[in-house]
Design a protein that fits this description.
This protein has two domains: 74 residues, no CATH class; 41 residues. The chain is an all-alpha fold and 127 residues long. It is built from five helices and no strands. Keywords: Membrane, Transmembrane, Transmembrane helix. It comes from Photobacterium aquae. This is GTPase. It holds the Pfam family DUF3302.
Length: 127
């Protein structure tokens, strides 16, 4: 009789520990996002609850989503943005150089055409 009640108590204890353990595990991404001051904390928290009902399919993605954000560097794309700004300035400089070279070529063509009218054609150009 005592062992029956002990087994029932142990079964209830294990079920409660598993139930609250799963909930605690699913709150890990939310806790990470809270400590990192993530801008999408609430969305991560709600998606964690939805993940309980989708057989934990979303949970790894929530972990990644929560750990990508850091308050000191944001999403980490500033380096890429700086590189893109540098490339943009280089392209602008190259465009200016091309424009300058185009003007020089136009000037040289004008000079050549004015000098070409005053010179006599050579033997190969007489055709």
């Amino acid at each position: 009789m005592f062992l029956d009640y002990f087994a029932l108590g142990l079964l209830c204890f294990v079920a409660l520990v598993l139930f609250y353990g799963i909930i605690a595990i699913h709150d890990i991404p939310y806790e990470i996002s809270k400590t990192r001051n993530h801008p999408h904390q609430d969305a991560i928290h709600y998606a964690g609850w939805v993940s309980l009902f989708t057989l934990h399919a979303l949970w790894p993605f929530l972990w990644i989503w929560a750990t990508l954000w850091r308050e000191d560097r944001g999403w980490g794309f500033t380096k890429i943005q700086n590189e893109q700004n540098e490339l943009h300035h280089e392209v602008l400089n190259l465009a200016k150089q091309v424009e300058h070279l185009t003007e020089k070529v136009a000037e040289l063509e004008v000079k050549q055409s004015t000098n070409g009218h005053s010179q006599k054609p050579s033997r190969g150009d007489e055709r």
